[in-house]
Automatic annotation (TrEMBL):
<protein>
    <recommendedName>
        <fullName>Single-stranded DNA-binding protein</fullName>
    </recommendedName>
</protein>
<feature type="short sequence motif" description="Important for interaction with partner proteins">
    <location>
        <begin position="151"/>
        <end position="156"/>
    </location>
</feature>
<dbReference type="GO" id="GO:0003697">
    <property type="term" value="F:single-stranded DNA binding"/>
</dbReference>
<dbReference type="GO" id="GO:0006310">
    <property type="term" value="P:DNA recombination"/>
</dbReference>
<keyword id="KW-0238">DNA-binding</keyword>
<keyword id="KW-0235">DNA replication</keyword>
<keyword id="KW-0233">DNA recombination</keyword>
<comment type="subunit">
    <text>Homotetramer.</text>
</comment>
<feature type="compositionally biased region" description="Low complexity">
    <location>
        <begin position="123"/>
        <end position="139"/>
    </location>
</feature>
<comment type="function">
    <text>Plays an important role in DNA replication, recombination and repair. Binds to ssDNA and to an array of partner proteins to recruit them to their sites of action during DNA metabolism.</text>
</comment>
<dbReference type="GO" id="GO:0009295">
    <property type="term" value="C:nucleoid"/>
</dbReference>
<dbReference type="Pfam" id="PF00436">
    <property type="entry name" value="SSB"/>
</dbReference>
<keyword id="KW-0227">DNA damage</keyword>
<dbReference type="InterPro" id="IPR000424">
    <property type="entry name" value="Primosome_PriB/ssb"/>
</dbReference>
<dbReference type="GO" id="GO:0006281">
    <property type="term" value="P:DNA repair"/>
</dbReference>
<keyword id="KW-0234">DNA repair</keyword>
<feature type="region of interest" description="Disordered">
    <location>
        <begin position="118"/>
        <end position="156"/>
    </location>
</feature>
Length: 156
């Protein structure tokens, strides 16, 4: 029988600015909370209901950690692909505690930046078109040079 594989995919809004810390081995680690929401109409009352779940995300991939550090803020909409992991720890009162996290390992996980935060005009593609066009006119991407002096020569 083949090995088992656990993968978690969530899409939501970041709850607060990510925390970036460095381990004793000089590796950067990012952690943040992600809110996912579910809405439905109550059959009996007819009222709209909403349930929000909070997920703790930890990223051990240094490349993605630098993206998180530069671009992810409170309210950012992101998709996370990682593994659910539960770890046991002991609190100050010597009580055993458990924390379940979505972990993006060095290999095998991913993070996708999905655009503007909720509530800032990205609910309809028609509304976001002018913003996207204006952003494209201002810059050519995350690390594009500031001028139009791109080198078109092939390096080989």
């Amino acid at each position: 029988m083949a090995g088992h594989f656990s993968q978690t995919i969530i899409l939501g809004n970041v709850g607060k600015d990510p925390e970036i810390r460095t381990t004793q081995g000089a590796q950067k680690v990012a952690s943040f909370t992600l809110a996912t929401s579910e809405t439905w109409k109550d059959r009996q009352s007819g009222e709209k209901r909403e349930k929000t779940e909070w997920h703790r995300v930890v990223c051990w991939n240094e490349g993605l950690t630098s993206v998180i550090e530069r671009f992810v803020r409170k309210g950012s909409k992101v998709q996370v692909i990682g593994q659910n992991q539960t770890r046991k720890w002991t609190d100050r009162h010597s009580q055993d505690r458990y924390t379940t996290e979505v972990v993006i390992q060095k290999f095998g996980g991913d993070l996708v930046l999905c655009g503007e935060p909720a509530g800032e005009g990205c609910s309809s593609s028609q509304q976001s078109q002018p913003r996207q066009q204006a952003a494209q006119q201002r810059s050519g991407g995350w690390d594009a040079p500031s001028g139009n002096d791109l080198d078109d020569e092939i390096p080989f």
